[in-house]
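Hi team,

As requested, here is the filled-out complex form for the zinc ion run. I kept the field names the same as last time so the parser does not choke. Let me know if anything looks off before we queue the next batch.

— J.
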Amino acid sequence: MSDTQRKFSIDRRGEFYCFDGIINEHTNFRKFEPKEKLLKFDLSGISYINSIGCKTWIQFFDTLKDREVEFHRVSTAMMTGISMLPGLLPPSGGRESIKSFKLPFCCVNCDADNEAVVTPSDLAVVHDSVFTKLVACQFCGNPATLTEANSEFLYLFAYEIVDD
Ligand SMILES: [Zn+2]
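And here is what came back:
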């Protein structure tokens, strides 16, 4: 693993705080003190989170429990983490905090790996299965299908939608 992959960074891009890299024992949020009442995080760059990173993450978001927190374009690595440990969601909003996230697709025509950003409203639950809107391959335009093994976190939304 290269140093760039290990490194964690926080950048401000427009209205978003963008988290990039790996969340682990080297990650700390001590110098990051956002002031806004509504905090929008872009989590598309998080490539990995380990158990010590989870602890740091939970402690950090606990300090923001009186704010409104939104997670945008959440990476599949982070969505997988959240589905195993829902405590990674902000205490103030829970699953409602996830505004959009990335889903891995594979093209049935050219076999290329694709990633699409979807929102919880793009999902539908039929019986116990979660379906998402049709995604076109960004390389050839043909329909792409969900990469099942990497999209199990979709079940995080199953019961929430059924309850609606
Ligand atoms: Zn294709």
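Two things worth flagging: The first helix runs from residue 3 to 6. Residues 44 and 75 are 5 Å apart (CA to CA).

Thanks,
J.
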